[in-house]
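Tokenised fold entry reproduced for absentees:

. . .
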Amino acid sequence: MNLTTKSMNQLTPTPKAIALNNEALHRSLHSQGVALTNDYNNLQPGMVCLANDSILRTAEPITDLTLFAAGYDAMVGNGLVKLRDFLAPPRPTDSRIFRLTTYVENEPWETVDYTKVKRGMLADFPEVRQRTAFKSDLQGFNRGLSVILDRDEIKSKPEWQQLHTKWLIDILNRATILETMAVYQNAAVVTSTVWDSSSNPDLDLKQRLLNLADTTGFYPQNVAYGDKAHLKRANAFESQLNAGSLARAAAYTEEQIATALGVPNVLVNAERYQSTATAKQEIIGQNVLLFTAIKDAGPMDPSNVVRHVFNGNHGGGEYAVYVTDLGVKKVALTVENYELIHAQHTTGVQLIAIN
């Protein structure tokens, strides 16, 4: 049977507005002043309707402030690595467990009577004892941190893995630096001095380096200034207002200070950590640390403190990163490494508090 157009229209129901219960309508009107309806045929002038959220987001661009985070990480992160390796240079090993041979540190300077090294007719050369060495088996600690993330919070952030990995590595680096500083503070000869308008800070440090060389046999190779100590040095020279002090004050870069002191390595530290809920604290502070830490040393390593790291089978890098599903809505990102902060010897370490 054929149906007419009129009867066809009569069979098609007319869409009606969705009826909202009084409670929902009252709540929306009270909190937002918005009329909720999808009855667009009966809209009255001045009536407000809810817009589609996805349409608003498409029309109005959302600014994602990731450039600041990336720039900040590049600035601070590199500084953390520089300070970490300056205090405790890395010593990669092939295994988490390794054997270390330590020689008696005074033997390289052993001397004999110069008259006894001359062999007489049919005589033998004088003999000296074999060098003394001690072997110890060490094991790196398995270190790591995890962060639990909500999938809804990261689904629109394609860089979330890189961002959180870098963040966790920075936290691990700060832990390494603070542990290394604790080792130095326990090992150092702690003294204090005053740098003021009547002082010569560079000459003061050179004298201390010379005194330490009388103990170790060589000048300490590293000098680390805290931010405040570096400022004390500049203020002491600038306040004297003579040609020599002003020239010293102008030598403020790490390379220039190293030349003035006669040492190869100087670092002025600017890195900080969260010390309280509202404050950051500079790591070295109003102190100067004298020590030896050589980045690429051979078998005869004179460094006071080193950082043994295990470059394992995680792609050859020092850190391994894992992403683990924890359920429908949660995911864990974990960063781990193997590391041992080791004090090889404590001779020639001095921590100077600058007042």
Observations:
- The longest strand covers residues 330-343.
- DSSP finds ten helices and 14 strands in the chain.
